Amino acid sequence: MAHDITADAAHAHEEHHESPVVFGFWLYLMTDCIIFGTLFAVFAVMRNQFAGGPTGKDIFDLNGVGIETALLLLSSITYGFGMISAHQNKLGALRGWLGVTFILGLGFLFMELREFSHMVAEGNGPDRSAFLSAFFTLVGTHGLHVTCGLLWMAVLIVQTGGKTVLSERMTNKLTCLSLFWHFLDIVWICVFTFVYLMSVI
Amino acid sequence: MADAHTDHSGASHGSVGSYLTGFVISVLLTVAAFGVVMAHSFSPSGTIAAIAILAAVQIVVHLVFFLHMNTSSEQRWNVMAFVFTVLTVFILIVGTLFIMHDTSINMMSR
């Protein structure tokens, strides 16, 4: 039995070995998942505490949310194409796809900030009601993550510039950001479903 | 094609086809969720159940096609950490809702 396990492990090692850096980053993402879980729990508790202020139905614009969703989903797949280029060592294509992903992410952020500023301008800022506090905290935290992802992406575009071959370290960095970016898209699925869509039913 | 890269990240980084498959399924699920809400075709509780299921399916699609999660041995610890996190988040959210609901009933704040 013990022998079998060793043989199995040896086989697995031979077949493929994921970098410990990437696994460590995966564990960080899992803790991030718990942060978002907490914020979703807060929102679920506060979602009907309007304090006489507007409800989600009054202030959410589903068309805008639809466009944001489309931008983020498209950016997920363009980053994926970038990773495929990276694994084929086509660095020009990699930078191109990262650039496209960056612009899509920037478009998402622009839409979100425009929505936020409209809401604040109309007096529906985070100080209006518990519902809006929870809304701004949850969606704002996601937006902050997207901002960090964009900064990271810009740094990687610069760092891969002028290179002809990707070092293992650089590939790990790209892989970590790809996990981060796809993870943010998954969080956004929960945001548009449980925050926006459920509030307008 | 995949064999050329077994030295690093192996078969776990997906192909153009798998990304496109995941993308098309995600678009369909997203459009379905927005459509169900905008069309008002179900009762409110039916709509909530429908979009929750659509979201759960889409999360699985993203995990498989974009994050390349699978049951292979190289992914064992990633999947284990993920399952543990899902359990933690489940306890967190359901526990919070249960306690806060109970509190608001006992304090008659509704």
UniProtKB/TrEMBL annotation, chain A:
One of its GO terms (cellular component) is plasma membrane. It is found in: Cell membrane. Keywords: Cell membrane, Electron transport, Membrane, Oxidoreductase, Transmembrane, Transmembrane helix, Transport. It is a multi-pass membrane protein. One of its GO terms (biological process) is aerobic electron transport chain. The keyword Transmembrane helix applies. The keyword Amino-acid biosynthesis does not apply. GO terms for molecular function: cytochrome bo3 ubiquinol oxidase activity; cytochrome-c oxidase activity. InterPro entries: Cyt_c/ubiquinol_Oxase_su3, Cyt_c_oxidase-like_su3, Cyt_c_oxidase_su3-like_sf, Cyt_c_oxidase_su3_a-hlx, Cyt_c_ubiqinol_oxidase_su3, Ubiquinol_oxase_su3_dom. Residues 1-200 form the Heme-copper oxidase subunit III family profile domain. CDD domains: Ubiquinol_oxidase_III (cd02863). The chain crosses the membrane at residues 21-45, 65-82, 94-111, 131-158, 179-198. Belongs to the cytochrome c oxidase subunit 3 family. Cytochrome bo(3) ubiquinol terminal oxidase is the component of the aerobic respiratory chain of E.coli that predominates when cells are grown at high aeration. Has proton pump activity across the membrane in addition to electron transfer, pumping 2 protons/electron. Heterooctamer of two A chains, two B chains, two C chains and two D chains. This is Cytochrome bo(3) ubiquinol oxidase subunit 3. The gene is cyoC.
Automatic annotation (TrEMBL), chain B:
Keywords: Cell membrane, Electron transport, Membrane, Oxidoreductase, Transmembrane, Transmembrane helix, Transport. This is Cytochrome bo(3) ubiquinol oxidase subunit 4. Heterooctamer of two A chains, two B chains, two C chains and two D chains. Cytochrome bo(3) ubiquinol terminal oxidase is the component of the aerobic respiratory chain of E.coli that predominates when cells are grown at high aeration. Has proton pump activity across the membrane in addition to electron transfer, pumping 2 protons/electron. The lineage of its organism: Bacteria, Pseudomonadati, Pseudomonadota, Alphaproteobacteria, Acetobacterales. InterPro entries: Cyt_c_oxidase_su4_prok (IPR005171), Cyt_o_ubiqinol_oxidase_su4 (IPR014210), Cytochrome_c_oxidase_bac_sub4 (IPR050968). GO terms for biological process: aerobic electron transport chain; electron transport coupled proton transport. PANTHER family: CYTOCHROME BO(3) UBIQUINOL OXIDASE SUBUNIT 4. It is a multi-pass membrane protein. It holds the Pfam family COX4_pro. It comes from Gluconacetobacter tumulicola. The keyword Transmembrane helix applies. Belongs to the cytochrome c oxidase bacterial subunit 4 family. The gene is cyoD. The chain crosses the membrane at residues 20-39, 46-67, 79-100. One of its GO terms (cellular component) is plasma membrane. Its main location: membrane. GO terms for molecular function: cytochrome bo3 ubiquinol oxidase activity; proton transmembrane transporter activity. The keyword Transport applies. It is found in: Cell membrane.
